[in-house]
Design a protein that fits this description.
Helices cover about 60% and strands about 5% of the residues. The protein is mainly alpha-helical. Strand 6 and strand 7 form a beta hairpin. The chain is elongated. The chain starts with a helix and ends with a helix.
């Protein structure tokens, strides 16, 4: 033991990483100690930190969780980055534009979560289906359509306590019209014939007996509602354990992964992390699905140590947050550059520029000759010319309402303005 202490090899992490034996065995050992001694010292350090979770495995052993420095740093950074204190551009946060960006995030999550479970539909086709509200044509599209509806439902019920019926309701929405037996949608599995296999057919996980699922599902809900355990868990850690728990129990014949990820979102939103509405975790998971499976496997093969899964899940969440902030910065930069190009293009007068700026901030706005005339104190004829020109450029949609034309903002107004700006810059370059 003195050699282990002297080599400073008795910590729960190695270089800030919470390593499984599967990874540690390839590391060079500290001086004068064997790999087995090193692993024993690491495990001893972890056991001194373990707190038991109210989740039992199939043998009746408790899952456990350590709180190493790396995990504490993660939750601190998540608090910082999802607290809402980060200043976002007005275009992304005002009441009119907020929903549009949330819908974009929900679409991304619906697509990638379904693709993780085998949906073969391309992202381009899936986005077209969801934005146009077209009915799904096959199982892959139906999975994505269902996931989108389920994520919208999760937003609606984020303030409610989780119950077994609510979990089943989420599952029903996730799997509608995609199962061999439609009665299984929203119904806890009745048999013990579910096995989780790897791509070559190797058994990875045998979930608990079907007869136990009613009790286990209630225990999961008690945990989600913070009734257990009798000590504090950070909300992000609780959400990650909830994800692990449903994945481990596998209470449904299919759709467990999609339901688990939906519950992770429910838990984060329920705890007040509203910016999670903009974050897609499945987009990150899809890039390395083997790591996702390995996070489950490491937990099961090392004393039910949920720390592996929680660290992985929170790392995925953090990468999703980074992607969100990069997107926000890029979007704000695009909007700024588009406005600048429009002002410099000399294609529009000051009234039209003001309307386009308003349309960017208020995509649900409607304009009429009367409203435009009143806002800018010009004649109706001048107002009509302004609106007609913007319509001809594709920046407004014109619809006859009664005796007057109503002008609405296209759903892709930003892309249209950006394309116009790019053409303007290109044409200026050619004329030099």
């Amino acid at each position: 033991m003195q050699r282990v202490l002297a080599a400073d090899a008795h910590r729960p992490t190695v270089g800030g990483r919470y390593l499984h034996w599967d990874k540690l065995r390839f590391f060079k050992t500290p001086d004068r100690i064997t790999l087995e001694e090193w692993w024993a010292a690491i495990k001893l350090a972890r056991r001194s930190q373990y707190r038991f979770l109210p989740l039992l495995d199939t043998r009746g052993d408790w899952f456990r969780l350590a709180m190493p420095d790396v995990l504490q740093r993660q939750v601190s950074e998540i608090d910082r980055d999802l607290s809402g204190r980060v200043k976002l551009p007005e275009e992304l946060t005002n009441s009119d534009t907020r929903d549009r960006y949330i819908v974009s995030a929900l679409i991304e999550e619906a697509i990638t979560s379904s693709q993780l479970e085998g949906a073969a539909t391309t992202s381009v086709v899936a986005r077209e289906m969801l934005r146009s509200k077209r009915k799904p044509r096959d199982k892959g599209e139906r999975m994505i359509y269902n996931n989108f509806a389920a994520m919208q439902f999760v937003r609606e019920v984020q303030g409610r306590e989780l119950t077994p019926d609510l979990v089943c309701d989420i599952h029903r929405r996730v799997t509608a019209d995609t199962l061999d037996d439609e009665a299984d949608a929203g119904r806890v599995r009745q048999a013990n014939d579910i096995r989780v296999l790897d791509p070559v057919g190797l058994l990875l996980h045998s979930p608990p007996d079907a007869a136990e699922l009613g009790v286990r599902l209630q225990a999961l809900c008690d945990f989600a509602n913070e009734k257990t355990p009798n000590y504090y868990l950070h909300p992000a850690v609780r959400a990650a354990v909830l994800h692990l728990w449903l994945g481990y129990d596998h209470p449904f014949v299919d759709g467990n992964g999609r339901t688990a990820r939906a519950l992770f979102y429910w838990s984060m939103l329920h705890s007040g992390y509203w910016m999670c509405e903009f974050v897609s975790i499945s987009h990150i998971l899809r890039k390395a699905p083997a790591k996702y499976a390995r996070a489950y496997l490491y937990t099961e093969t090392d004393e039910n140590d949920a720390t592996y899964f929680v660290l992985y899940q929170l790392d995925v969440l953090q990468r999703g947050i980074v992607a969100l902030h990069e997107y926000v910065r890029a979007k704000a930069d695009t909007i700024h550059k588009t406005r600048l190009v429009l002002r410099q293009s000399q294609s529009f007068n000051h009234r039209q520029l003001a309307l386009l700026g308003h349309a960017l901030r208020n995509p649900s706005a409607k304009y009429t000759v009367s409203s435009h005339s009143t806002s800018h104190q010009v004649t109706r004829q001048t107002a009509r010319v302004d609106l007609t020109e913007l319509t001809e450029h594709g920046f407004l949609n014109a619809t006859k309402v009664g005796k007057e034309m109503a002008y609405t903002v296209p759903g892709d107004i930003e892309k249209r303005l950006e394309a116009f700006g790019a053409r303007t810059v290109l044409n200026k370059g050619k004329t030099r």
